[in-house]
Design brief:
The protein has about 725 residues and is an alpha+beta fold. Helices cover about 15% and strands about 35% of the residues. A hairpin with a 5-residue loop joins strand 18 and strand 19.
């Protein structure tokens, strides 16, 4: 038998002798048999784990129901997005009352510059959109219809053709990020016969709307090919446009806002290369636009202005990035020697991207931990420009979906964790902001909550920032419990986004803290570089430093600090669980990447080779030693004194194989049998993705489960146990 579950004991996974030996180092792995995740034995064990989890949290069902009800109540019954404009129509999404999934809709344009979803000829209310007949909206795609009879549904590509006659859309029905691509005739509302069964993110139309470019990923889930499909023709006739054979690189495709070019780019963790396909001559070969230099990444955007047209190039050959200009390549292409500097690096600002519009260029920057936009004129890209900053405390402002090039206003989105998003038009000439749409959050009063930023010292003296959120009635006097959230990898930054689930734990007296640990880009690219490869330990030290600092300063209860993170953030939880088990009352490790050394040696595992430049290449002894020093599966904490642990995983997850959390849980339980019932494994054994269930309510139900468990562990429920 794979497992045994009787009475109050969790499942026990069998052990089978197995040993990895690399660089003369032996690593026992008695749960290596779980690598066959599709076997009946593994699936049976995962089902037993899920049953144990369900039984263990049965006493929290009432609390979960209450939490979900509160969270759902903060979601507007009918939710709609601001519009994005094309030549003839304005497009928007509408999620009807009680529905999990949105509809993609459009209306005939009246105001050529308006981002509003309101029709000039009528009013909108609830699920009904009452308009004059000429203004009647069209439903182009009802995602609920695609999801009918399915446990999971996630859209990938949704791109309307330039002539607005077709919609390219793709959907994933299992959570494995394999998207089936279809084409819908927007005149008839019917899907065309052709469909591509395996595609990935990204897509672009030719200027004549006759061709569509898409990406395909390999068995390791690495997008490595770009194909061209002619609308109305068999998929078997599709043409391979580009292929990336170097397994460190992923290949992507998108169209430029100008509509003149299709951008194909290959990118690894450290290096990039770009090609352009003429959208007006889509069968012509791609043109080389910058070449490939080891250790240099860059992105391009096409710019049209009075002097002609060229390419904006944001390149990281300086630590915090700089802006360059490049000519549009001819058929022969060009390399980086054709570039010239337009805006030098500012070490105090991290330049993330540059978007060109007819009325100016919008730069996305990060400085002082905050995200902002800066508008600069075409004729002086190095100018101080005009900043667009967040209007809410601890918020961030980002360029929203603005699909037209020849505009003098753009749409921006401004929000924070405790402020629902507000979309505004920003004049590129004056910076004037005009509110377009405010996201509703029924029953939520932002004045009830406080957000502040603190900095706490890491062991090496680095000041680690943290955003601290609480209900205004919750004191920072050492009496309140805290939940920390952290990620810290890939230079990815969790932007402050409105979370309708968060007030439910703040209302119960929890202090919620987002620790901006090294490995992310909250402090710029230098902050990222200081938390990767041989400096990865900084990420773990930073999270512990924030927890210790909050306790030492008497801000939160030192005996009731919990921590949570997902994926690479799950790795973070695994590392701090092992390195400082005494610090935590509870830990939530969602889809944790914890068997690091084994996975980084397994080139058949999805995403492995592409991630050697993030975690290390274990074939190199020094990098092997560095990873082995902190890999959670290889460094279990001593028995006794461990915090409660909730682990999640998903059978169809292509990013963290379900074997990683399953093996880690089994090893942890075996190494401390007395503690083992306090370790739960919530596994999605059916359809489900890396980030959990789909649908706006389905995901909130998952959040309610996690928060109910945390509240229980922090002693904030009637059923709380020690």
């Amino acid at each position: 038998m794979t497992t045994q579950q009787t009475g109050g004991t969790p499942p026990v996974a069998r052990q089978e002798p197995f040993q990895h030996t690399q660089h003369g180092v032996a690593r026992p792995d008695p749960y290596h048999w779980m690598h066959d995740a599709g076997s009946a034995e593994v699936l049976g064990h995962l089902a037993a784990e899920r049953a144990w989890y369900d039984a263990s949290v049965a006493h929290l069902r009432s609390l979960v129901t209450d939490l979900k009800s509160e969270m759902v109540a903060r979601v507007p019954a009918t939710d709609r997005s601001p519009a994005w404009n094309r030549r003839r129509f304005s497009y928007y999404t509408l999620t009807p009352a009680g529905r999990e999934y949105p509809r993609i809709c459009r209306m005939i344009r009246h105001d050529p510059m308006s981002f509003s979803t309101e029709s000039s000829g009528g009013t909108q209310s609830g699920d009904d959109i009452r308009t004059t007949p000429s203004d009647a909206p069209e439903v182009l795609l009802d995602v609920a219809e695609l999801a009918e009879g399915k446990d999971y549904l996630e859209l990938g590509v949704t791109v309307v053709s330039p002539d607005e006659g077709h919609l390219a859309y793709s959907a994933d029905a299992t959570g494995d990020e394999v998207y089936r691509l279809r084409f819908r005739d927007l005149t008839t509302g019917e899907d065309l016969a052709e469909e591509v069964p395996r595609t990935y993110y990204g897509g672009a139309w030719s200027a004549d709307s006759q061709w569509f470019f898409y990406t395909v990923h390999d068995a390791a889930y690495r997008p490595f090919q770009v194909w061209r499909h002619r609308i109305g023709s068999p998929v078997a006739d599709d043409v391979l446009v580009a292929e990336e054979l170097d397994e460190r690189f992923e290949l992507r495709v998108r169209g430029t806002r100008s509509g003149d070019w299709v951008v194909v780019w290959a990118e690894s963790n450290t290096t990039a290369e770009t090609w352009l396909v003429d959208a007006h001559d889509p069968t012509a070969p791609p043109r080389r636009a910058g070449g490939r230099r080891d250790g240099v990444r860059y992105r391009v955007d096409h710019r049209r202005h009075e002097g002609g047209d060229d390419l904006l190039v944001v390149v990281d050959d300086r630590v915090e990035g700089r802006l360059l200009l490049a000519p549009v390549p001819g058929p022969e292409g060009h390399d980086w020697t054709a570039w010239r500097e337009a805006r030098p690096e500012n070490p105090a600002e991290h330049l993330e991207r540059a978007d060109a519009f007819g009325g100016g260029v919008v730069l996305a920057l990060r400085t002082g931990g905050a995200h902002l936009l800066r508008v600069v004129p075409h004729d002086d890209l190095a100018a101080p420009g005009r900043d667009v900053t967040s209007a809410v405390a601890a918020g961030g402002v980002h360029l929203a979906r603005t699909t037209e090039y020849d505009v003098d206003r753009v749409l921006v989105r401004d929000e924070s964790w405790l402020a629902p998003p507000v979309w505004s038009e920003v004049s590129l000439a004056t910076g004037e902001r005009t509110e377009v749409l405010r996201h509703e959050a029924p029953g939520f009063d932002p004045g009830d909550y406080l957000t502040e930023r603190v900095e706490l010292p890491a062991p090496d003296g680095t000041a680690v920032p943290a955003s601290v959120m609480r209900h205004r009635d919750t004191p920072l006097d050492g009496s309140a419990p805290a939940v920390l959230y952290g990620y810290g990898a890939y230079g990815y930054t969790f932007e402050p986004e409105w979370d309708p689930a968060l007030p439910s734990i703040l209302d119960r007296g929890v202090v919620w803290v987002h620790a901006h640990v090294r490995g992310g880009s909250e402090g710029g690219r230098a902050w990222y570089l200081d938390g990767k490869l041989d400096r990865k330990q900084h990420t773990f030290d930073d999270l512990v430093a924030v927890a210790d600092g909050l306790a030492d300063r008497g801000l939160v209860d030192p005996a009731r600090i919990a921590s949570r993170g997902l994926s690479a953030g799950g790795l973070l939880q695994g590392a701090v669980f092992s390195q400082r088990p005494d610090r935590w009352r509870a830990v939530v490790a969602e889809v944790p990447f914890v068997d690091v050394v084994t996975t980084m040696f397994d080139e058949a595992t999805p995403l492995t080779i592409t991630e050697w430049e993030e975690w290390g290449d274990p074939r190199v002894r020094a990098e092997f030693d560095a990873m082995l020093a902190w890999s959670p599966y290889d460094n279990l904490p001593p028995a006794g004194g461990r915090p409660d642990l909730l682990v999640t995983g998903a059978v169809h997850d292509p990013r963290v194989m379900v074997r990683e959390p399953a093996k880690w849980v089994a090893a942890l339980r075996d190494s401390d049998p007395e503690w083992s019932p306090r370790c739960l494994f919530r596994c999605e054994v059916g359809a489900g993705a890396h980030v959990g269930p789909s649908g706006r309510f389905g995901h909130l139900a998952y959040e309610a489960e996690v928060y109910a468990w945390l509240l229980d562990r922090l002693g904030l429920t009637e059923e709380a146990s020690s």
